[in-house]
Design goal:
By secondary structure, the protein is mostly beta strands. It is 14% helix and 41% strand.
């Protein structure tokens, strides 16, 4: 029966495809090791070091509107761009931070830069003219009013005999 299965079990219990390159299997195992190790942290320690920034975004929907909230700490309104193209809402931004300390015999300067783009598919038709976006204390709130659909009226149709 073992030869019928496209998978084989290794000594560690991991499943590998038969004939898969050992280097690929090793790379996947190593990636899983790092993913599992950093799963309990809010942000991977490598992200801050390499300047990437991935803001948290929430989206809620009710009968009248869709609300999108993005946490953008350390940014200013001029650093953010919001676009809606068809049914894709795009939030772009660039974060630049510079910290400088001068002492009597020391000088310390640290800079971090990072840009991000978040694309969110909007599940309903919205009124483009009434979209509202506000930015306050590092939180971007976008309100997308839904297109009002006409109330469907039901009409009973009389059946005539021919």
């Amino acid at each position: 029966m073992r030869y019928l299965s496209p998978f084989r079990f290794g000594r560690s219990g991991n499943v590998a495809k038969t004939g898969e390159n050992p280097a690929t299997t090793f790379q996947r195992t190593l990636n899983n090791l790092f993913d599992d190790f950093f799963s309990g942290f809010e942000v991977s320690p490598f992200e801050e070091k390499f300047g990437s920034f991935n803001p948290k975004v929430d989206m809620t929907e009710d009968e009248k509107e869709i609300k999108v909230t993005a946490e953008l700490p350390g940014l200013e309104e001029k650093d953010i761009e919001v676009n809606l193209s068809r049914d894709i809402l795009t939030i772009k931004g660039e974060k630049t931070q510079e910290k400088e300390e001068k002492g009597k015999e020391t000088y310390y300067c640290e800079r971090s830069y990072g840009s991000f783009t978040r694309a969110i598919q909007i599940p309903s038709d919205v009124e483009h003219d009434k979209i509202d976006a506000t930015f306050k204390k590092g939180v971007l709130n976008i309100t997308l009013p839904k297109v009002a659909k006409p109330v469907e009226q039901q009409k009973k149709i009389q059946i005539k005999s021919a």
